[in-house]
């Protein structure tokens, strides 16, 4: 059998690793920050009806401009967003990829602030974009001064923020994004995959869009919206940005089924998002309980919590797996990340972790 190194693969992909969240059938899957609540049955029925209608015309290509979906997404986002400002793709991963295809690529660079979403450097590699890194401040924050200093030192073509940040849960202040925009003449990309879990009233980078044509804000239906399996990510930006993305997208990239299911789900946004407050409550419970078990939990605005003080993260990861709980070893020293799920899931996780203790035995 041939191995990867036997293939005439691009030199810049040799030695790279694919996205690696383990996939394992477990009872308590708290590893990839999904909404663990199933979608309401009434909404499911409406989605199926929409899919049934879509299948009758599936001999034809879908709407290449996904017009109805963009209208629904604009309505959902609010902030006086127009459909012309919206773009969508198969997950926000594809949004990131199309952004780098259009604005990055060979000879260009993108700056990130690790630890952050592990796919950012992987998609950079896949698109031939040079990956640059800058350090964060204490507790994973990024001050305006830190962002500006990194941009001035490295002059990237794109800057990536993740707000709130995966895997730490840390918010990014709007002042930091504004300052980064001023300091750069490239694209500033804010990955807001977890925005719906932010505290009520916390402003999104969407509020910064007017007058900033190089600012891109991405969102996803995979997290709060409980729609990870459908694969729908989207972006809000100046209409010129969506014109740029049309140059790199594949024609008809959003299938008729993706469009039909997403439109139907968005028409039930309040029901789809009904569990968000509960989930944020479980996150706050994790933030309160983990220190009582001897761990340090990092303040989180997302639906997960990073905690450290674990003697051997991999051993604890495996011991939890033996108890049918899958969480995430994100490769940070002494740390693990857990998704906030239902109250029952959180209880089960906390009880198992209490039994194991920081030693993990
Ligand atoms: N951005 C961040 C910060 C994420 O954590 C994730 C998923 N883990 C994504 C983007 C991608 O999500 P999707 O492609 O499902 O929209």
TrEMBL record:
Gene3D superfamilies: Aspartate Aminotransferase, domain 1, Type I PLP-dependent aspartate aminotransferase-like (Major domain). Pfam families: Aminotran_1_2 (PF00155). It comes from the Bacteria. Residues 30-353 form the Aminotransferase class I/classII large domain. Residues 1-22 are annotated as: Disordered. Keywords: Amino-acid biosynthesis, Aminotransferase, Histidine biosynthesis, Pyridoxal phosphate, Transferase. Its cofactor is pyridoxal 5'-phosphate. Its EC number is 2.6.1.9. It catalyses: L-histidinol phosphate + 2-oxoglutarate = 3-(imidazol-4-yl)-2-oxopropyl phosphate + L-glutamate. One of its GO terms (molecular function) is histidinol-phosphate transaminase activity. InterPro entries: Aminotrans_II_pyridoxalP_BS, Aminotransferase_I/II_large, HisP_aminotrans, PyrdxlP-dep_Trfase, PyrdxlP-dep_Trfase_major, PyrdxlP-dep_Trfase_small. Pathway: Amino-acid biosynthesis; L-histidine biosynthesis; L-histidine from 5-phospho-alpha-D-ribose 1-diphosphate: step 7/9. The modification N6-(pyridoxal phosphate)lysine is found at residue 223. NCBIfam families: hisC (TIGR01141), PRK03317.1 (NF002877). Homodimer. Belongs to the class-II pyridoxal-phosphate-dependent aminotransferase family. Histidinol-phosphate aminotransferase subfamily. This is Histidinol-phosphate aminotransferase. It comes from Lysinimonas soli.
């Amino acid at each position: 059998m041939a191995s990867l190194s036997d293939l005439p693969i691009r030199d810049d992909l040799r030695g790279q690793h694919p996205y690696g969240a383990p996939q394992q059938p477990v009872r308590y899957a708290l590893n990839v920050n999904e909404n663990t609540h199933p979608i309401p049955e009434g909404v499911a029925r409406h989605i199926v009806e929409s899919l049934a209608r879509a299948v009758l015309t599936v001999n034809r290509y879908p709407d290449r401009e996904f017009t109805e979906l963009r209208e629904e997404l604009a309505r959902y986002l609010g902030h006086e967003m127009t459909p012309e400002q919206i773009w969508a793709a198969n997950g926000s991963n594809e949004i990131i990829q199309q952004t780098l295809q259009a604005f990055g690529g060979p000879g260009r660079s993108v700056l990130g602030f690790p630890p952050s979403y592990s796919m950012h450097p992987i998609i950079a590699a896949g698109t031939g974009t040079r990956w640059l890194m800058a350090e964060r401040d204490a507790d994973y924050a990024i001050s305006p001064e830190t962002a500006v200093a990194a941009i001035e030192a490295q002059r990237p073509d794109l800057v990536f923020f993740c707000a709130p940040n995966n895997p730490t849960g840390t918010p990014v202040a709007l002042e930091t994004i504004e300052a980064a925009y001023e300091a750069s003449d490239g694209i500033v990309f804010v990955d807001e995959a977890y925005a719906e879990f932010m505290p009520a009233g916390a402003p999104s980078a969407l509020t910064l869009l007017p007058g900033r044509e190089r600012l891109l804000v991405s969102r996803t239906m995979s997290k709060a919206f409980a729609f990870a399996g459908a694969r729908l990510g989207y972006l809000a930006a100046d209409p010129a940005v969506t014109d740029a993305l049309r140059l790199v997208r594949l024609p008809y990239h959003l299938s008729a089924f993706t469009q039909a299911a997403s439109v139907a789900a968005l028409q039930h946004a309040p029901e789809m998002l009904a569990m968000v407050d509960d989930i944020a409550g479980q996150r706050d419970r994790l933030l309160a309980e983990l220190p009582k078990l001897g761990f340090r939990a990092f303040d989180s605005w997302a639906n997960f919590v990073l905690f450290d003080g674990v003697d051997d993260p991999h051993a604890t990861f495996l011991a939890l797996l033996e108890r049918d709980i899958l969480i995430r070893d994100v490769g940070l020293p002494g740390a693990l990340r857990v998704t906030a799920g239902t109250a029952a899931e959180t209880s089960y996780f906390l009880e198992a972790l209490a039994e194991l203790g920081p030693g993990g035995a």
